[in-house]
Amino acid sequence: MDEPMLLLLLGSGVAFVFAVLLWKLLVTTLGIASTQWAVITGLPDEPVAQVLAFGIPALLAAFALLYLPRIAAHSATSVRLKGARR
C-alpha cells in the first residue's frame, strides 16, 4: 500500500473516532441541559429539585475529570506490568 494512502486512511479513522466522541458528548450535554430546563421550568419553587438537577451532573463531571484519567492510567500500568512478568 502506498504511504500517502495509508496516512489518509489512518487520519480518516482518527477523525471518525473524534467525530463519534464529539457526537456522544453533544448528545449527553443536550440530555442534561433539557432535563435541567424541564426541572427549572416545571418546579420553580422546589429548591431540592433544582439542587439535584444541577448538582448530580456537576458531581458526575467532577468525577469524570478527576478520577477517570487516574483509573485509566492505573489499569494501563497494571496491564503493562502483568505483561512484563510473563
Give structural notes:
This protein is mostly helical and 86 residues long. The protein is 91% helix and 0% strand. α1 (3-42) packs antiparallel against α2 (47-66). The radius of gyration is 21 Å and the shape is elongated. It starts with a helix and ends with a helix.
Strand content: under 5%
Structural class comes to: mainly alpha
Unreliable parts = none
Name the shape in a single word: elongated
Using DSSP, what is the number of strands? 0
Radius of gyration: 21 Å
CA-to-CA gap between the ends?
Answer: 35 Å
Q: Name the average pLDDT.
A: 83
DSSP helix count? Answer: 3
* Main sheet characteristics: none
Tag the structure with descriptive keywords:
elongated, 86 residues, mainly alpha, 0% strand
